[in-house]
Design brief:
single chain, about 280 residues, Rossmann fold, 2 domains, 8 strands
């Protein structure tokens, strides 16, 4: 196609095919619809979710089972490129991607934080479009100002993905594979791991009926993290950092009927004590 034979900006919006019907597919599909990017087809397993997503996006639903031929249509304009966005689980990515050759789509893009471009097989035009956000069907995704990492070796595809991210209100960044994977690791450790600690905060405040008393100190930490580029350990506090063994023992006594909470508290306290020697106050 003429659009793919140039390194300049594409002159026509790609014919967009969205594969998947999980949380990521819903969040991305609705975000693209909201900024004027038309999803033409939704390809998903025939379990009901794909049909519902296609209806919501005013797109054609294409039921598909792994191993079967893909019955995807294409644009009426032969010069309009087809772009397929794979919003599927990381474990399914290679298998699903192998079903899309250059005869089914002109560009193949996944939205995984850690999977390689090579997981898209030998397709000649490949890319990544990964938002550093928890994507959910049930909760509105805060796209404004959110980073979306873009990786591709093709100028026209890079320009298309940058354009979409800007239209969504996000802040796109073109990155290398290693940079994207490191940011994915950082996101897992700061968001997913931290959610476990929030879980214990919720458990320990259940008898109060709410965990809202924890919000000010959490907001304070996030604000300091946002405003200050220094390592957060330079602002560390707490009994383990101070070497306050009496308070540590009191906390462990309160956790005595919670073996997992006890193990978590002991491990973090031990780590904080060791790190204190690297960041003395």
């Amino acid at each position: 196609m003429s659009e793919l034979q140039t390194n300049g900006k594409p002159t026509k919006e790609p014919w967009l095919i969205l594969v998947g019907a999980g949380q990521a597919a819903w969040a991305l599909g609705l975000a693209l619809l909201g900024c004027g990017v038309r999803v033409q087809q939704v390809i998903a397993r025939p379990n009901g979710r794909g049909a519902a997503l296609a209806q919501r996006l005013q797109a054609q639903w294409v039921p598909w089972k792994t191993g079967e031929p893909i019955a995807s249509a294409g644009p009426n304009d032969p010069d309009q490129p087809r772009l397929t966005l794979l919003a599927v689980s990381d474990d399914a990515l290679q298998e699903v991607a192998s079903s899309f050759g250059s005869d089914q789509t002109d560009a193949l893009v996944h939205c995984s934080g850690t999977r390689s471009l090579d997981d898209l097989g030998g397709h000649p035009v490949r890319g990544v479009f990964w938002p550093i956000l928890n994507l959910s069907k049930a909760i509105d995704t805060p796209w404004t100002g959110a980073p979306i990492l873009i990786q591709t070796d093709h100028a026209w595809l890079e320009q298309t993905l940058l354009n979409w991210a800007h239209r969504m209100g996000a802040e796109p960044r073109v990155v290398t594979e290693v940079q994207r994977q490191k940011l994915h690791l950082a996101a897992v450790m700061t968001a997913n791991f931290n959610n476990i600690l929030l879980h214990w905060g919720h458990r320990l405040t259940q008898d109060l009926g709410t965990h809202r008393d924890l919000l000010p100190i959490l907001a304070q930490q996030l604000n300091e993290f946002k405003q200050n580029s220094q390592d957060p350990l330079t602002r560390q506090s707490g009994p383990a950092w101070r070497g306050d063994q009496r308070t540590l023992d009191t906390h462990l006594h309160l956790l005595q009927e919670d073996p997992e909470g006890t193990a978590l508290y002991r491990w973090f306290s031990s780590l904080i004590k060791r790190l204190h020697h690297q960041y003395p106050t």
